[in-house]
Design goal:
This protein has 669 residues and is α/β, with parallel strands linked by helices. It is built from 22 helices and 27 strands. It binds NADP nicotinamide-adenine-dinucleotide phosphate (NAP) and iron/sulfur cluster. The site of iron/sulfur cluster has 14 residues, from helix 10.
């Protein structure tokens, strides 16, 4: 008897059956644009082999003006269709099913030729769109229908029409972006005409025995978005127009509410999808922050949806479903919703990958095969770099011993997991523990490895990590001065007024830790209040009229940096704004362009714009970055020694680089 009976139940669509209720949601990977179609096929085939019930590809442009950026991939030519045929063939060989997403970006298209219902520029793009005329609208509909027909020719099992997240079709639906006075604007019947017409024409283009999913924005989270009644009206019209499945979209990309970041509670928007259940006759999919089979099972058992969509978790682990089916959910690499290697890469034009699984998107190039000659390998340091290296080396057949001086694995992850909103790091450390055991790594906790202990190994990997940097501020030996390590480990009392020195990732984390009482990430009603989200039946678009209502801050915090640039500028591209907004909501003051003069009983004395200022405080927390801890590496001269992670380069170290370096080194050992 499986632990996930609802999740693993097939879904009969009449003309075809999905083998389970897990959809791999659409993600842009930047792979298609690179033209290596074998690599694209390998990426999707791995997810099909791993058991996804239905895969949806990254968004494909229906035409040049609708592409998310100039040159975005689409099915325009016979050659394009042949390339996509490679993907669908490989997915089918693995027993999977795959649908192609058709994504028209409208005013979100990052190019000068973008088009929209009205000429209103979006706040997240520099390009004002051109307002479409009647012929222009007809062209967009025809191009979307043609893309669907081409998808069928390319062997896809279906298409997903992207109607949410503030893209083109969504832009017609609401007055926020549609100010037209013709038959495509004005009343709601007129505004929904385009998505409904698109659905009819897509159905006509592909025939009856082809899956057509419509992704519908169920809560827009922008001013003047849809009401719940309008969402239901549209859902029914889309069903009548021929859709087989309705998928959930949550929030527009320009919304000022986080919808997928790690601080969003797990399954934090499933209640929105649930509101549509029973109001339409076709299956409904829920989405956002579903990252374990347990969560998926609970949502389906509670009737929140007929199916669940997981996107990033399939980057973290292509075998999500297969491992759940085998009763080994503990071995599923967890998506921690950090966006660091997926969305942040997408926006930088890099191939999307995954912090916990560097093989994602690199399946053909980063191959983990059996070592020709098994060797005895010592890895010193059980932080993310050492753990990844030890596990991968052991999977390759090496005899691996992992030494850790502390009495637990995890290294810096054990500090991250203490930060409110970063609870997902708990799952990451648990997964590393399960994998160490599964791979057969010999773990020696509480062991300080020196040259003597390490003699006799064929190779030593030094992953000893970092030490906090000493900022050398006069008076920093004052008892009110603490290191972030003392604070996050709970080893010291922190007063009610705090100055945080250094505004990198850790300065932000420490500030969050200091101002937050109970983490709203584990209390959904509180989280929704904090970000000003309400029931879309009560308020249009799901935006609470009273706005965000955060709990009062637990402390007064001032966050400082020497650089004159905006505080938090170097945080993650897709998550930095959330960290900044969260601290602003708690009244944290941010000061840039400062120099530190001294610390004394009164507080922290700084210079700003050449003028002296006192930050009156009870505690100063030093978060001034790190330096490599590599004394062991220096002592092992002569042996085969590899240095990875923070011990190698401390600057801009993060778990993404540490894990990637660990896995890549082990792949070649
Ligand atoms: P960091 O990002 O390098 O930031 C260090 C901060 O200290 C900067 O604000 C820097 O700004 C300041 N600083 C540097 N030298 C200083 C000195 N001598 N005196 C005073 N201030 C000094 O390092 P971190 O915050 O320790 O984070 C370490 C790594 O962990 C980061 O690379 C980050 O990617 C990762 N991390 C990521 C997250 C995340 O959410 N993704 C969270 C936590 C940590 P000024 O020089 O301008 O003062
Ligand atoms: Fe999830 Fe982070 Fe991996 Fe993206 S990079 S898939 S958010 S763990």
């Amino acid at each position: 008897m499986t632990s996930y009976p609802h999740m693993l139940r097939p879904l009969d669509l009449g003309f075809t059956t999905l083998k389970n209720r897990v959809l791999m949601g659409s993600m842009h990977t930047n792979l298609e644009e690179r033209g290596d179609w074998n690599r694209v096929a390998a990426f999707y085939a791995a997810r099909a082999k791993g058991g996804a019930g239905l895969i949806v590809t990254g968004g494909m442009a229906p035409n040049a003006e609708g592409g998310v950026f100039p040159g975005a991939s689409g099915l325009f030519t016979a050659e394009d269709i042949a390339h996509h045929r490679m993907v669908t063939d490989r997915v089918h060989e693995e027993g999977g099913k795959i649908a192609m997403q058709i994504l028209h970006a409208g005013r979100y298209a990052y190019g000068p030729d973008c088009v929209a219902p009205s000429a209103i520029k979006s706040p997240i793009s520099p390009f004002p769109p051109k307002e479409l005329d009647e012929a222009g609208i007809e062209k967009q509909i025809a191009d979307i229908a043609t893309a669907a027909a081409h998808a069928r020719e390319a062997g896809y099992d279906g298409v997903e029409v992207m109607g949410s997240e503030g893209y083109f079709l969504n832009q017609f639906l609401v007055t926020h972006t549609n100010r037209r006075e013709d038959r495509w604007g004005g009343s709601y019947e007129n505004r929904m005409r385009l998505p409904v017409e698109v659905m009819k024409r897509v159905r006509a283009a592909v025939g009856e025995d082809f899956i057509v999913i419509f992704r519908l924005s169920m809560i827009d989270l922008v001013p003047n978005g849809s009401t719940h009644e309008e969402v239901v009206q549209l859902a029914r019209a889309i069903e009548a127009a021929g859709a087989n499945i309705l998928n959930t979209g949550i929030g527009w990309h320009e919304a000022r509410v986080p919808t997928i970041a790690t601080s969003v509670p797990r399954a934090g928007f499933a209640w929105v999808t649930k509101k549509l259940m029973g109001k339409v006759g076709i299956p409904v999919i829920t989405s956002n922050r579903i990252n374990t089979p347990q969560v998926a099972e609970e949502l389906l058992a509670e009737g929140c949806a007929d199916m669940v969509s997981l996107a990033r978790p399939f980057l973290a682990d292509p075998d999500f479903v297969a491992k759940a089916e085998a009763g080994r959910a503990d071995l599923i690499a967890p998506c921690i919703a950090c966006n660091q290697a997926c969305l942040d890469h997408t926006f930088q034009g890099k191939v999307s990958s995954c912090l916990v699984n560097p093989r994602a998107g690199h399946e053909t190039e980063l191959v983990i095969d059996k070592a020709e000659t098994p060797r005895r390998i010592a890895v010193v340091g059980a932080g993310p770099a050492g753990l990844s290296c030890a596990i991968t080396a052991a999977q390759r057949g090496h005899d691996v011993t992992l030494f850790e001086q502390a009495d637990e694995i995890g290294g810096q992850l054990n500090m991250a997991r203490k930060v409110p909103g970063k609870e997902e790091f708990d799952g990451l450390v648990d997964w590393f523990a399960a994998m160490v055991a599964e791979a057969g790594v010999t773990l020696q906790l509480g062991t300080r490895a020196d040259a003597e202990v390490l003699a006799g190994f064929d190779a030593v990997v030094v992953a000893t990590g970092v030490l906090p940097r000493d900022p050398q501020i006069p008076g920093q030996d004052h008892p009110k001065v603490l290191s972030y390590v003392d604070v996050l480990r709970g080893a010291a009392e922190v007063g009610p007024r705090v100055a945080v020195v250094g505004a990198g990732g850790i300065g932000f984390d420490v500030s969050e830790f200091l101002v937050t009482g109970k983490s709203p990430t584990v209390d959904l009603p509180e989280w929704l209040r904090e970000w000003g989200v309400t029931d879309p039946e009560q308020a249009r678009s799901g935006l609470a009229p009273e706005g965000p209502q955060p709990e009062p801050a637990a402390r007064e915090v001032v966050l400082l940096q020497r650089k004159a640039e905006k505080v938090g500028k170097r945080l993650g591209k897709t998550t930095g704004w959330i960290h900044r907004a969260a601290l602003m909501l708690k009244g944290v003051k941010m000061k840039a362009g400062v120099s530190y003069e001294r610390i004394d009983d009164a507080g922290l004395h700084i210079l700003r714009d050449g003028k002296p200022e006192l930050i009156a405080c009870d505690t100063v927390v030093l978060c001034a970055g790190q330096e490599s801890l590599r004394t062991l590496a220096d002592a092992l001269a002569g042996a085969e020694v590899h240095v990875i992670g923070g011990a190698d380069v401390a600057a801009e170290l993060d778990a993404k680089r540490a894990i990637d370096q660990g896995v890549r080194l082990a792949a070649g050992l």
